[in-house]
User: Fold these one by one.
Assistant:
Number 1:
Amino acid sequence: MVVHSKPPAMEQLSKPNHRAAFIPLIDLSKPDTKAQLVRACEDFGFFKVINHGVPADLIRDLESEALRFFSLPLSVKAQAGPPDPFGYGDKKIGHNGDVGWLEYLLLTTNSSSDYHKFSAIFGRAADKFRCLVNKYIAAVRKMACEILEMVAEGLRIQPRDAFSKLLMDEQSDSVFRVNHYPPIPGFLESDGRNLIGFGEHTDPQIISVLRSNNISGLQISLKDGRWISVPPDHNSFFINVGDSLQVMTNGRFKSVKHRVVANGSKSRLSMIYFGGPPLSEKIAPLASLMQGEEDSLYKEFTWFEYKKSAYKSKLADNRLGLFEKIVAS
């Protein structure tokens, strides 16, 4: 495997608390998990799901194809980039100076996309890759919608698809990202430093569905600011509350701040579905969640306006800050 020649700057990170018991575990096959889902979204904005219904062979096949792509020489992979917005990217995250020890593929969730950038690399196998991506996206989107509908029931929101219909809309602005964190030549994990794989941030969309191979690296921030490491589990999925869902629940749900540190000696692969609304969708707290004279904490905005603002910012910025209402004292 070809690796990057020079790693970006090292950064001393706050040492995470390794108490994995903090992370809620939710079995989606059980008949009544609504209360657990709501509590997890309120307390952490993050949880792990099992019995999710996504076929193991589909996960394995797509991961295999992705690793095959990332094992190609950089000069070959670069033919699928730069991301505009979709395609292959290397080190640079966004347009504002954020860098990480990773390479990635950013793909549309539009099933009719021809992935023309990959045909020169994959040849006929490009169709197989596209087919696997489409099947995988359909499976994780179905799971995400089921979770959102159970959450709506737990919040007593009508209709039940108040959140999920935004992901199922033909104009849904959802994306799919495959991140690869390669081994780091000469990196010593014993010196107490961590290499930023992907800097701390929140996800701007409604919900994120994440899985990775059995390599550690993901960390989330608790309400008190402490970071905890998320033990890897390649058989399960992890769910993030996004900024848009935080707004739609008027701050009741919390968009989780998270980051990835590079493992150093092992290759880490993660695949993330970001469920987003149509660009023209107005994002605001749902009226049915507003209690009595409770005021909205946020100005109403369209997803296009928020997305445009978020992608102009740096990763660690408080992206929702620009859209919060200032309460008069």
Number 2:
Amino acid sequence: MEMEKMNTDMSGEEEEKENNARNSRVCTSCDKIHESISKWMLPENARGTYLERANCIPPPLFIISISIAELAVFIYYAVWKPQKQWITLDTGVWNSPFIYRPDKREEAWRFISYMLVHAGIQHILGNLCLQLILGIPLEMVHKGHRVSLVYLAGVIGGSLASSVCDPLQALVGASGGVYALIGGYFMNVLVNFREMIPLFGVFRLLLIGIIVGTDMGFAVYRRFIAPVNGPQVSFVAHIAGGLAGMSIGYVIFSCFDENFTKDPRFWISIVAYLVFLVFAVFFNIFLSPAN
């Protein structure tokens, strides 16, 4: 009996040691990930605070969920309502209840839901790659409520700006939200350039420039150069989303360890955003050529 009890105790201790070793390996891996993310996302004076409280709970649910939703909608239209070509819109997508169309502006949800629909494989792959590569680290650092606020500010600002500046064109894609994340991150790298390692700072700025330039090139191509076999799509949401990120997004991301609602810059940017929103709504109701 005593031997059996000793064996049981020994096996219990070994199992506990194995569990502790496994947890230690997992923690070490997580720590390395968080350390790398902190170097890319935060200035040096904020990294210590982040690493002290860094954890993977909750995971970056917003960016992952929105990406899955966009991919699901794309697959639906690609499989059940196939497009004849992959770089411009076709009839199936044009008739979607999600797409923003100037003749359907009274259906207000379209000013947001257009982000779920994409004009071809290149369009959705570009947006998904950008928002996953940048959005997941941002959400791990700043959490979902901050990232979702910046993302949706870019989406809504993008559709409203498009309805004002390019009022006769449709709008699809999540570029407004993606560019809001890029704009917020870009401003933080620019402002905290010396603290975010100059060499990597230059690399990051160049990388952002290349990505934005390439994506804008495709957007301009789809708008002005692609064969007109179907409806054309505005690219104004890219610019408006970037501006939303460089204002609202910059303030929110720069207040990493503070309550951003207590920062006067946040309220200044919000008031400016709301003024634009009211003007855009007024324009759509009374002044738009689409009327």
Number 3:
Amino acid sequence: MAIEGGPLAWRCKRVGDARQFGAGLSGNHGRPKRETGSLGRFKASLRENVLGSPKELMKLSVPSLVYAVQNNMAFIALSNLDAAVYQVTYQLKIPCTALCTVLMLNRTLSKLQWISVFMLCGGVTLVQWKPAQATKVVVEQNPLLGFGAIAIAVLCSGFAGVYFEKVLKSSDTSLWVRNIQMYLSGIAVTLVGVYLSDGAEIKEKGFFYGYTYYVWFVIFLASVGGLYTSVVVKYTDNIMKGFSAAAAIVLSTIASVMLFGLQITLTFALGALLVCVSIYLYGLPRHDTTSIQQGETASKERIGV
């Protein structure tokens, strides 16, 4: 059975290229770079890259601060826009991430990949779409402020993700050390925000008031998810992270149907279909036209054109 030109051959080639690329980055003797080691090596790496390298710590504080701005802008936007408008406009972070990837990492995307990115944007919007519900509570909103906040949040999301990807792939520092460097500054920023907004209640009831076993379990799951997100960013890219997040939204909704009896709507079914099709289209092999162009040039030279 000939598979030289099929998807399987392309995937095998991608795996081989990835291994060669990893070996090229590994350093001496072509040995692959390891993300594991002994506890002693881990402590030495922490002393060298965290305590003994404030410059690297500051470098990773950039995406942490940008993410903090993004989250706050998202809250401001949601407070000043209708939920449906917020839902649609916030998904612009997907094509914004693709644009930042092209500009900051000097990559190229094919037309089909751009189409799949915008298709994913529409699919996620439909999956999360909920009809507007009438409420007796009248909230004064400022649409101009809301759109400004959502624009900042979208730009922050794309920039921070691609910046973190660039830092991860531009050095041999361990992935886990990079996470520690980024989250240390994130913890500091969020602690300041918590004490500024709820400092009195924390002094009265304690910082861990209301932390049940379920809360700790959710925190654990979120932490593991964050680490795996870093792995995805390091070994693929932020665009693929967006696709995996969209697939997670679809799967979580299906789980809600099975566990809580959530009703599937037509918009959800259409959105899930768009998400699946966009993932398939983005993963299709890109056609290499170099050999074709070279052949055309050679033929023109032969006939004296």
Number 4:
Amino acid sequence: MQKWTLPQKHFAHFYVLGVAWTTLLLAATWMYAFKMTPLTSDEFHLSKVWRAVFLLVLMEIQVLRRLMESFYVFKYSPSARMNILGYLTGLFFYTAAPLSLCVNIAPEVVTFAGNSRTSSAPEFDLLSSLSPLMKLGWCQLIGAAVFLWGWLHQRRCHAILGSLRESPSQAREYIIPHGDWFEIVSSPHYLAEIVLYAGLLIASGGTDVTIWLLFGFVVGNLTLAAGETHRWYLRKFENYPANRNAIFPFAY
């Protein structure tokens, strides 16, 4: 029913929330790491606190780009709607996802932040606070590379989708997208999202259950959504490329 739906342009609310929440968590965690767990060893990957900081930096890069895209790349069709349950799920996801990256140290960070409010403001040296992030372990380097690979392809695929409705006359039209990973799957932006969350999982070292749960939710949710999108394309376009799978090349 129409009354249980919202305009798709409300997707921007997810990323406003995501940026605000991730920035808050990143600032608090980074300050805690700088003051309470100075890194004296070159073994960056042994420090779960600095690992959480690194993961939140990657998440910040992701949500900032998504926020910019929601305003400057996507041109939502005036008739495009989303279910209110999907809207609430999106708000929950962008609250839970950043938190899952630092949940193991969240109690200590909250205690530290509370004590900081009642005492003098801690001094913060930007250069010194960045130096631990230069001591990356192999998991972080490989994870960051996988993350950026997915991040770049999602950016390209979103630009392709945005370009399909550059003029007002195209606002209500549906066009088969081409280019980048669109040549092999119907929802390459979803595939890219799975890739970049796989990068986060690798960068975490794979030891945190919460990050595995986050990754599993992303894979399950986007696989279902991609299947629906693929079936819609097949119904909508008689000449839809037969070589495209829904989301995983040569598999599904």
